[in-house]
Amino acid sequence: MRTAKFATPVLLLSVVTASSIAMAPGSASASGAAAGNTYYVAPNGNDGAAGTQAAPWASIARAQAVAKAGDTVYFRGGTYAYTRANSTCSSQTARVDAITLDKSGSSGNPIRYSAQPGEKPVFDFSRMTDNCRIKGFNVTGSWIHLKGLEVKGVPQNNNRNAESWGIWVSGSNNVFEQINTHHMGTGLFVNGGGGNLVLNSDSHDNYDPRSSDGPGENADGFGSHYTPAGRAANVFRGCRAWWNADDGFDLISTYSPVTIENSWAWRNGYVPGTTTPSGNGAGFKSGGYGGDYEANAPKHTVRFSVAFLNKAAGFYANHHPVANDFFNNTGYGNNPNFNMRGVDSSGAAVGRGNLRNNIAYTGTPTSYMTGTNAAYNSWNLGVPLSDSQFRSVSTSGWDAPRQTDGSLPVLPHLRLAANSALIDKGTGVGLPFSGSAPDLGAFENDGR
Ligand SMILES: [Ca+2]
Ligand SMILES: [Ca+2]
Ligand SMILES: [Ca+2]
């Protein structure tokens, strides 16, 4: 993710001079909505400085005080270390933030907080000592775009709380792009917002050893929870979650729909970096309300995604009351690959899910299928499943560097071999495909 992708931003920077930055706020608006002001923050900056490239600020809080809709704040590479929250713990279970982003952009004119092209800003919260429940970033604002930031180390400083959070989102219509959250409680946690997009982001090695629910029970890679009914869908696209102690993706207790697509989840449910069992261990935990029936549950969608070697289910309905759509996913070596355990209005366990074009290979294929609407999946069709159907079945290297635009690396793993019997064996689900019909699994064959 270095030189090529940044050609355009570099050109942009070349026209942003110190004098243009020094103009009064709003002065750029005459040249169009897209030409907001540009500011800079650096680890060796000074909040008393001008916020220019030559004289950057030190903190995101200082930048937010000035930035307005349409503006961009670039963060220079290096570590932004936090040792205390921006408010005091009122109790051991109170919530405090290291960073609060409560200033909104507007539709078409977000406030952008972005890595300086080619550089890696790291927000390190590991030395915070606040004795309560900590959020690294608390994003209560809307129309904010975070890009290229690494977020790590939000600690649990007592055992009174379920988990800490890297990025907590209660605002709406935000974009989180090329974010890397790791080594803390849940990485990115949407709590109540709608219309948020998490794009091309990674969340891994999260663990909550001091969780009040037990070690590892709440450290998910990504979560979307508690959004009221009627909001725009929250979307996770091109994301990877691995070696999180609880689940890769978790959608429990939310009332507006979530779409997860083109995303990968593996080795969740273990103490990071080990095979020591820890929390629940689903790759994609797709809804549910703690086992309760909720009549207004939304339909979630998981498609073109891969789950492998998770401790528990790769794709899990998690007692969801309505049938979610699971289209063109690949489950490999999970326990089981697809667990469609839902709940009916009497509280009884029943299969819930609309499943098309999925592959379940090795491990236990499926469970709780009675009651689902499942067709054209590998287990329905009786197609031959063997390693030779795939270009590779390697479970290594999935954390390879992303492409220059932030999209997932193109690996041979679990892609169909050129002569695979799984090509064109699917059925149309209203989405693009090549050849005469959709293929089975997450990756439509590209002819190689
Ligand atoms: Ca759990
Ligand atoms: Ca979880
Ligand atoms: Ca095809």
From TrEMBL:
Residues 33-346 form the Pel9A-like right handed beta-helix region domain. The keyword Calcium applies. Its cofactor is Ca(2+). Residues 1-24 form the signal peptide. GO terms for cellular component: extracellular region. PANTHER family: PECTATE LYASE (EUROFUNG), PECTATE LYASE PEL9. This is Pel9A-like right handed beta-helix region domain-containing protein. It comes from Streptomyces caelestis.
